[in-house]
Amino acid sequence: DQQVKQNSPSLSVQEGRISILNCDYTNSMFDYFLWYKKYPAEGPTFLISISSIKDKNEDGRFTVFLNKSAKHLSLHIVPSQPGDSAVYFCAASGWRRDQFYFGTGTSLTVIP
Amino acid sequence: EAGVTQFPSHSVIEKGQTVTLRCDPISGHDNLYWYRRVMGKEIKFLLHFVKESKQDESGMPNNRFLAERTGGTYSTLKVQPAELEDSGVYFCASSLGGSGANVLTFGAGSRLTVL
Questions:
Q1: In the structure, what pLDDT confidence band is assigned to residue A18 with cuts at 50, 70 and 90?
Q2: What pLDDT score was predicted for residue B99?
């Protein structure tokens, strides 16, 4: 009964191109979404978030898009850099912001 | 500012033994969470403390797992007796909390291998 799904286990992109990572959720009560990035042997680190009152949030090279009707969000990285190679986790929570549900992660490899 | 610290980084034990994992959250963070990731799977919620109180322990797998948070500071997660399926990486995270933009800061994790 996974409530947050990342259906692509891995993605490879050439340096300088766009990386698009996708995430789907099933619980319509979720209204706050985050992306975390994880390097090997480290904990996940916060990257970017979006609340349901928005459909887009940008931070430098990272943009998150939210489509509430489709229960889908995506993370765009432009341009992709080799240092972006990591596992990316999508997470969601409800209005209380006290429990977060994570996906299985997508391993991104940026090829120099 | 010191981050979230977890100890040990890796523990290898035999089935039936006991292991205790420790987490030191960021100072001043009332919220403390335990999560677990089994290889290739999602990062799964185990439980949530607000200060020393268990706010939500719905994710704890069974009564072999016991979490405590003494005085609202550090937390321990004990697995007794350990089973093979308990292997995985246990992450601790902390946050200031509130209904605003709550962002979890994670530790590096404690990898548990049960043989």
A1: very high
A2: 56
Measured from the Cβ of residue B18, the count of other Cβ atoms closer than 10 Å reads 11
The number of beta carbons lying within 10 Å of the beta carbon of residue B74 is 16
Determine the 3-state secondary structure of B85 from DSSP.
Answer: helix
CATH assignment of the domain containing A59: 2.60.40.10
Tens digit of pLDDT for each residue in A88-100? 999 999 887 778 9
H or E stretch covering A47: strand A45-51
Residue B101, pLDDT score:
63
Domain residues for the domain of A97 are 4-111
CB contact (8 A) between residue A93 and residue B102:
yes
Contacts of B33 in chain A (CB under 8 A): 100
A77–chain B nearest CA distance, Å: 21
Contact: B55, A100; criterion CB under 8 Å: no
Domains and CATH numbers, chain B: 5-96+108-114 (2.60.40.10)
Q: How many domains does chain A have?
A: 1
Over residues A47-60, the pLDDT tens digits come to: 999 999 999 999 99
